[in-house]
UniProtKB/TrEMBL annotation:
This is DNA polymerase IV. The lineage of its organism: Bacteria, Pseudomonadati, Bacteroidota, Chitinophagia, Chitinophagales. Poorly processive, error-prone DNA polymerase involved in untargeted mutagenesis. Copies undamaged DNA at stalled replication forks, which arise in vivo from mismatched or misaligned primer ends. These misaligned primers can be extended by PolIV. Exhibits no 3'-5' exonuclease (proofreading) activity. May be involved in translesional synthesis, in conjunction with the beta clamp from PolIII. CDD domains: PolY_Pol_IV_kappa. The keyword Transferase applies. The keyword DNA damage applies.
Amino acid sequence: MINPTTTTTSYRKIIHIDMDAFYASVEQRDNPSYRGKAIAVGGSPEGRGGVVATASYEARKFGVRSAMPSKRALQLCPELIFVRPRFDAYKEVSRKIREIFSRYTDLIEPLSLDEAYLDVTTDKQQIGSAIEIARLIKQAIRDELQLTASAGVSINKFVAKIASDLNKPDGLTFIGPSSIEAFMEKLPVEKFHGVGKVTADKMKKMGLFTGADLKKLSEQELKQHFGKTGAFYYRIVRGIDEREVQPHRETKSLGAEDTFPFDLTAVEDMHAELEKLALTVHTRLQRYDLKGRTITLKIKYSDFRQITRNQSFQQPVGDLETIISTAKQLLAATWPEDKKIRLLGITLSNFGEAVPGSDKQYNPGQLSLFDFEGE
C-alpha cells in the first residue's frame, strides 16, 4: 500500500516520462528549417478541416494545442506551419525510447507513443535511486535521439504524472513522500487530474482554490458537495494512489476511456474529454498500423446506467479528425444537454479490409446506433 500519511518506508519508486512536444520535436529534429518555428503536425494549412495532433512549443505560446481544429489554430497563429504526420518515424523513435527504458526496468506502462510510467523500485542495474535513473534516461534520450523528455519522480503514479508536467520542457521534478501533502496543499484545484473547468468553477465559488482548501473539508463534507467523487478528492489531496504500473496495458486494447472524479454536465467539457480520448486512440492505432470500420462511444451516467453508440464505415478509418467528429456525432445523438456523465470511452474495432463490393466510405452522416444497458 502506498500511503504517504503512514510511517512505512516501503514506498514504490515511480517515474513518469513524457516526451516534449513529441511529433513536432521529431519533425524539428529531422528538418532544420522547422527549428525555432511554430509548427503543427496534422491539420490543414488552409484551415478547411483537420485537427492538430501536436504543436511545437513555439506554437503553444500562441495557444495552439493538440486536437484543436486547424481553423482555430490559424486564427491564433497565422504564421503556423502545418506538417504532414510521419507515424512510421514516430513509432521508430518510440521503439528506441522503450529500449532505453528497458535498460532499467521491465515494469513499463506505456500510455501512448510518447508517455509511460516506469516502476524502478527494483531496477536492473541496481542503481537504487529513481532520480538518478530518470536523469540517465533523459540523458540517453538527448544523446541518442536528439530529443528532450520531462520526468516526474515520486512514490505513486498520480504524483509522478503531475510532477512531470511542472517544469516542461526538459524538466525533472522529484516529489518525495515527506513533501507530497505540502505539495498538494499548494496545488491549484484546476491542476488536479480529473478536475475540469465546471468543477473547478464550482470549487472556487465555494472558496476552494487550492489543495489546502479542499483538505479543510472532511470526507463526508466533500461527499455532500461533490457526491461519491468527494471520497476521491479526500484521498488525492493527500497524495494517495495505490495503482500499480501495468506493463501490458497498451497492448490489451485499442480503445480509451476515463472515469471522471466529477459528473460532466457541460457539452463543451464532454467534447474536450472526447478530444483527449480520441488522440489517445489515434496514437495507439498508429502504433499498430491498424484502422477499424466501427467507432464505438461508451457512456456511463451518474446513476451508473451505461449505453454504447456506434457507427460503422464501409472503409476502414483511423484518422484523428474522423474519430473526433464521429464521437461527437454519437454523443449528440444521446441529447447530452440534460445528462450527468461520469465516464466516456472511445473504441475502434472491426479491423480489416473494406466491405466487399464497396468503393467508397460509409456516409458519415448516417449513424448506425445500438443501445446496450449495462452496469
